Amino acid sequence: MYSLPTASPDKRVTGRDLPRADAAVKVTGKAVYNTDIVRPGMLHAKVLRSPHAHARIVSIDASAAQALDGVTAVLTRNETDGLACYGTMVKDQPVVATDAVRYVGDIVAAVAAVDERTALAALDLIQVEYEILPAIFDVDEALDPSSPTIHPLEPRGGLPPYRNGASASLRSDHNVSYEFRYSTGSSEVWEECDHIFEDTFLFSRMNHMHLEPFVTVAEATDEQIEVWTATQSPFNLRQELGHVFNLPENRIRVHVALLGGAFGAKNGPKADPVAIRLSQLSGGRPVRFCMSTEEGFLTVSQHAAKLIVKAGVKADGTFIARQSTVLLDSGAYAEHSPAVAEKAGYRMPGAYRWQHIDTVCKAVTTNTVPAGAMRGFGATQTTWAGERQIDLIAQRLGIDPYALRLKNLKKLGEEFVPGDAGIDSDLAEGMRLVADAIGYHSRDRSGNRGMGVCVGLKDSGGGNKPAMARVKVTANGDVFLNCALTEMGQGGHSAMSQIVADVLRTSRDRVAYTGIDTDHTPFDQGTNASSGVVVMGQAVRNAAENLRSQVLAWAGEQFTLDPATAVLDNWTVRTPTGEVYPLFERIMEFFGHTGFEFSADGYYKVRNDADAPLAARCVFYEIGWAAAEVEVDPETGKVTVLQLAVSGDAGKVINKIGCRGQDEGAAVLGLAQALFEEMRYENGELLNAEALLYRVALAEDLPERFVSITQEQGHGAGPFGAKGMGEGGMLPIAPAIAQAIADAVGAQLTELPMTPERVFRALSTGGVPGLPPLSHA
């Protein structure tokens, strides 16, 4: 017998500090991740990787491996006929290397066997003959017309629409896969500048270091593909696999369980093509390809970058013009580099008002690990250079860097650039909050201590991202939420469930998040660009509201009441005059006790806009503010972060602890990149490509005082005024620490990470030639 809930919620569940919906299964070990998937008769895959940075494949002999007992298939270039290359905008990455290998770690061959031990033994039997080719490891060398061409044949590719000052091209220069340009305002304003400064900044390369590896289980034939895989974008993956294997999308099925972290790395094919092809070659038996942590280092990384920034200013510090050249090291294949380059180029204005902007960003091909999407997505590189130059300008002009920022920050509602949406946060208020949190304005700069305050900004939500969702409710009021937002530790499933619970005025515990299956789950472009709460959140909210309207309309007919004034509350209908109508009994009576489900879909996408440079206006701006206090040891160059305050604007909080976790997690990534985290290359070989050698942030690296402030300024485009979070907190950390170092000892750093060696070197030179001494007045 169904029992009606005794009490209705007395307030919204959004904005509350509720436990994560997946907390219990995760802490008890019951949660199922993609790495846990097992299929009957499952085989295991291992891959042979190139030991050379650049070489022509002369021959491959895999006959001995194929003959090994327990091996079901060997994949080399000989088994890739009809398979296309993949990549975002530029499709240049093959399933396995065909004509040449292009970086140390490039996949040359793959084996499927009854167990991993047999697969590894088979790899040792594969004979590959190489002809070594000249390799390029630096973006400047790659752009030199006399250097080798890494991709002699032009790959397939395409460009999205651009408008109002934005443009792009493919293969615009030697070893450039994609180039983005943005310009606005008149170049004549350079003549009005009292000072013109040009500086060069270097940004280091990081690994994503997600705990769950790249993993795929595939069951495939020439006519049908089904995968269980760790991906942030199941529908994009389905589309890309259709392109690679020349199959219609209705022959491809993608399942996604919980992800053990991603940070952008799990966009696009990773382990999938190899697992699928080996399954096809093994008669359709399931094949599991699970990379090791070390192999993750050889699959995708963040972009290293060189940024040349020229700024024109008035004597009083008014910003006039900014010209930028951004060179992203995209590695051996384009991967997500075109999309990152687009955003890096577009985000160069930062949070400030410029009369003229002229930016070019190039994705430069080198013989290193491919670079792709990572938390911050181009804004980390541009915020480092842009904020650092503002500090250098402040020193040159003798203006306090905090005051210089306030003077030039965009106002609430002011267009980011002509044709785009207005800024949806009070930037000055965020600066004040983090500065006050560490006592910036009353700081004691003795004892080699100093402070810095910075702000980072990125357009977020993905203007061209459509999202769909479906909400169902059973006869007794149990709710199913079906959407393709992937849960990778950010708490997205909890947030979506809270939105549904609020709309339907029920407990979040009654909302179940169904599994992601592209055959049955409504379409979503992907869980990226911090879009979950805003873009998918609005689709979910719309679906829940459509469902509520449907239920109330049915109830109106059944109980002869006005659905426009009635309220759905804990699976009862309440009228303004106080009548309460339970739904369960009436539903069962009406449908002959067979039960029933109400179901409704929701959709959201920001409108296309002919005036917007990227063809659609920004959904929301993700902004991070940071303030840091450091102490520098002048004898060693060691930097100790004493205080770190980070803040983001949630617009309207959906889950309080979730918002805090996003900002603090992003800040710790920024702290690591600022001081020590870096993928280190020597002659094309990655020296620290394993977990024991790669330095990530530890609990002991956290400052003694670490503060996060979640703002709710209320101007977001998401449900109830919410904005996305998760990336903004990373953007300002490194430049804030750099300015604090300069404030403490006068050393201006222009390269990441700011290791003791680099700080010590900058102590004797000032870091940037020609800078006047930093005043401690």
TrEMBL record:
Pfam family, one: Ald_Xan_dh_C
SMART domains: Ald_Xan_dh_C (SM01008)
Domain of life: Bacteria
Any GO molecular function: oxidoreductase activity
Name of the protein this chain belongs to: Putative oxidoreductase molybdopterin-binding subunit
Residue ranges occupied by any Aldehyde oxidase/xanthine dehydrogenase a/b hammerhead domain in the UniProt entry: 28-134
Gene3D superfamilies, sorted: Aldehyde oxidase/xanthine dehydrogenase, a/b hammerhead, Aldehyde oxidase/xanthine dehydrogenase, molybdopterin binding domain
